[in-house]
Structures are given as C-alpha cells and as structure tokens.
Design a protein that fits this description.
Blueprint lengths: L4 H11 L1 H8 L10 H9 L9 E4 L5 H14 L4 E4 L11 E3 L2 E2 L2 H21 L8 H15 L4 E5 L16 E4 L7 H4 L3 H8 L8 E4 L4 H13 L3 E4 H4 L1 E7 L2 E8 L4 E2 L2 E2 L6 H15 L9 H10 L7 E4 L5 E5 L4 H14 L4 E5 L7 H7 L4 E6 L10 H11 L5 E3 L3 H9 L4 E5 L2 H10 L15
Parallel strand pairs: 1-5, 1-6, 2-5, 6-7, 7-8, 14-18, 15-16, 15-18, 16-17
Antiparallel strand pairs: 2-3, 3-4, 9-10, 10-11, 10-12, 13-14
Helix pairs in contact: 2-5, 3-6, 4-11, 4-12, 5-6, 8-9, 13-14, 14-15
Amino acid sequence: MHNNKQTKEKRSLKQEGPLAYLFGLEQFGIKLGLRNMRILTASLKSPENSYPSILVAGTNGKGSVAAMIECGLRKAGYRTGLYTSPHLTHLQERFMVNGQAIDRPTLLQEAEGIQKTIELLQTQGTLKNPPTFFEATTALALSLFRRSQVDAAVFEVGLGGRFDATNVVKPIAVAVPSIDLDHEQYLGTTLAQIAFEKAGVIATNSIVVSSETKSEPSDVLRAAAAARKARYIRADKETTISYYIENGETYIRKAVTPHASYGPIRLALRGRHQVGNAAVSIRLLEELSTFGLTIPPSAIETALSKTEWPGRLELVSVTSNRRVLLDPAHNVASALALAEYIREWKPGGIPFIFSALRDKNIDGILRAFGNAVSRITCTVIDSSRACALEDLLAITRSARPDLPVSASADPSDALEASWQFGQLVVVTGSVFIVGKFKGILTPIEEKPTPKPNQM
C-alpha cells in the first residue's frame, strides 16, 4: 500500500531554488487584492493578453467544470492550458498544458523567472509587499501558458473572485456552477454577499453560465452580468437532461440544449451533482463559438466521458477486495453531496477517515454526512491550518455521538483499522487529506464497470 516516491519527490521539489522560494511565500497566507498581481503581470508584459481565457468561479464544482471545459477544448483540437488549485501531491498538477502536467525543468525555469521578477520589483520599491504563494503561482501560470502558445486557457478561481489573483484575466466566458457558504471570514456570511464576491470575475461583454438555482445568489449573478453587458445563461433552465445512476456511476441518456442533442454518455466523474456541472460545461462550450472557438458536439460528448479530475469521488482499488473513495468534501454543501452519493450507492453507510482545517465548519461537515457514515477515524494532515488531532477528535465526538469515533495519527494505521469494518473506506474532509492518501496508496488496475443495458 505504501508509496513514498511521491512524498520524496514533493520534498525534493520544494528544495530546488526557485521552488523553495515559491513555497516560502506561503508564510504570507491569504491576501485579497489585485495590486500585486497587476504590477507582476505588467512586468511580465501582460501574458494574460496572449490567449483567450475562461474563468470558473463559485463554491463547489469549480474544479470539475474547469476540467470538463478544458477537455472539451482539447478534444476539439485546441491547445489548452488549465490552472487549478490546490494540488494534491505535486505542484506541477496546477499547471496543465494540453492535458499534461508541466515537466519539472519547465516548471523550474518559469519559477526562476517569476522569482527574479519579484525580487527586482522589490528592489526597485515597485512591489512594496511580497506576493502570496497563490499570487506567484498564478503569475507563473499566466506566463507559462504564453510560453506554451496555448490557443485557450481555463483558470479555476481561488478564494472569492473580485479580489482573487486570477481576476487580472479578462475572460471571454465565466462559469459559476454553484454558490454556497464557505470562507465566510473573507467573503461574507450570506449567499448574496458571497455571490457578489464570486461575480467580481464577470468581464464586460463576456458570457456567464451558471446552474445555481437559489434565488438570492442567482439574482446577484444576473444583476452583475447585466451591469457588465454580459450574457447570462441559466444552464439548468436551458438544458434538459435525462440520466440514471448505476453501480455508483452516472449515465446521461440524453441531454438537449438550444443548440444540440447529446447522449448516451457515461460521465467520467462520479456523483449526481456532476449532471449539473455537465450542463454548465456543455452550455459554455457551445457558446464559445461566439468568440471563434468552435466545439463540435462530438468533442463535448468525448470530454464528458473522458474528463479526469483526481481526488474527487475517485475510487481507488488497492487490492482485489479493498477500495478507497477519495473526496475532499471540505464544506457543508460538498459534504451533503458526498453523503447523497454514498447513500445511493451503499445505503448501509461505510467507514470514514476524516481530517480538516481548523478554519472550516467541521461540526457542520460532520453532521452533513448523516447516515452515510458508519464510523469515523480521525487522522492528521500536513498543513499549518490543520485542526490538531485531539481537537478534531473532541469535535467529532461532540458532533457525532451516534457513531464509534477513534483517532490515529498515522494514516496507514487509520486505513487498516477502518478496513476491519468494511472493504470500502471513504477518505474525506480536506484536499490535504486526499493528497496525503494519494501519496501512500498504490492502486491496482480496476476492471471496467459493465455498461448497463438501460441506454
């Protein structure tokens, strides 16, 4: 089960000059605002203007939608860039060119250029405060995609939108799959306030596609689009999808939009919630023809059936009868989606291994799991923001007095203990815990799921 190769490689990456510098910027934490980014990109001669860009904002579903859109562009023959965060095991995962993570020499070369630019700006006094890690990596992505001569780039927005580092980009299109409560200490405590921050990435004359159904955030998104003369599309209203769930996988019988009909398709990404994400991706890809990027229906169908988004409802077979389901579920809405998926597939509930960052709504997440979980083993994650194990254990026992709750600092021991109560175990609570388990699991090749005859 153990595989220390990835962990060692990550450690060695950190120790190489410019990457050690980048990781050193993590000490400056989260800082909202675009001043540093505007100075940085200007010094890099505005790489963001070298290619058309698409931004994917919102609370949950951002990564899935970004991955689907990038895959659709690539399957249509365009050379693509994809920037997402955070990474699971390797920094390179954040920077994809044509479906492949960038290689280490290219990453090092680009990071060295970013480091020199930052140091020069600080020496000149132009950059008064050091950029954050996210600002630096975003600038790196913008520059890297120019170097790679991409035809189009897709950027997953980080925290919020209005003051997020990615908002130096002027997108031709914006996807907002959902708005829910998360990062309230930065974005506000109501859905309207959070939607206002997310809507900050909408550019003049762009296209905005969303499947958000709640009236409060929907109204904010629609008003922001109107104010910027952007066309607002409600994917859930303009797309009719017939689908079913079988053996934990989602099958679209037929999807009909104002432009085309699709199906049958087996969605590559698991979960009922991916139907809404697929609707957003389909409608946005269709509308890119407005900007000269034509995506044929065949490319869209292929993208939905081939998209890869590791660590999100990812099923890993470790032996012939032992499996792990990886999913971050780091807020209440995503925990509810995970629980719904488990209840549909395994109604009796299964063991969970859980860890979380201390600034998250841990109590709410644990309660949201409901009866999808049969027992919980708490463990630790590698982050300065991690909830201490003894605190996590106390919170979990308080939130879920109905369940057996234990703790193990060693994730491998936690997994072995959980497997005693079921051959399928869920690892959840944070991207950091998913990344940690991705680093220690050695998967075996899974047999393809037989295709149902219900198509």
